[in-house]
Write a structure and sequence with these properties.
The chain is built from eleven helices and no strands. With 272 residues, the protein is mainly α. Helix 2 crosses helix 3.
Amino acid sequence: MMEWLQLLLPAWIMGSLLVFLTAPLGCLMLWRRMSFFADTMAHGTLLGVAIAGILHLPFWLGVGCLAALLVAILWILHDSRLPNDALLALCSATLLCSGLLLIQQVPSLRPELLSYLFGDLLSIEWADLPMFAIVISTALVVLYRAWSAQIQIAIDPDIAMSEGVNANWQRLIFMLLLALFTVLALRAVGSLLMGALLVIPALSARLLAHSPKQMVIWAFVLAQFGVTVGLWSSAALNIATGLSIVLCMALTFAAIFAAQKFKSIAPSPVSD
């Protein structure tokens, strides 16, 4: 039992720290209709991993630089004539193809590719936690200070700008926070599933909440449940942590959706 705790406890703490960013950022993504941004950033991490492997750099540095570059590219390409989803699709396809092409040229990366695709939260050690905690705490402070403006932009950008909110600055903050989340979540759920880590808890919370505050709280609770159950399940079943966590979150969403559908179609009792 103690061996299991030594293995799972640092991984669980890391996952729990990550949930503090997952809940508010996931909700903001839904409110701002930018769910595809996380997938674009996730696909770009493959290219970052490949570049870091070729240059013999730490993988987190390659992913971080690529994430910052993607934010800069999207900032430059921002144009009212070009739909956001189309730009994201363009960047996503380009980055994914480039990453796969480079990985094919670096055979030494292939044995470790599954851990980058699906994550390996169990590889987290106690020594990794202080730095993660500092980075996540800093990101939460930035998000807290910008939260009111972010909500205003999500509800109605025109009214927000008329009240003095700098929409471009808030957009940059939001994208930088998502880029930071991408770097942090790479080890937890991998590059292919980090979008699901953001979207599924927020989507489930939307079914239960009646206000933005409730939605963030529900997203936090559901994400924490998914991380906890998924982590223990991955250790017990010997499967990738990212797959286990995301499947657990998806099953939770399905259960909530099915329960509400059943409740809505069930005949109400007729009173005498």
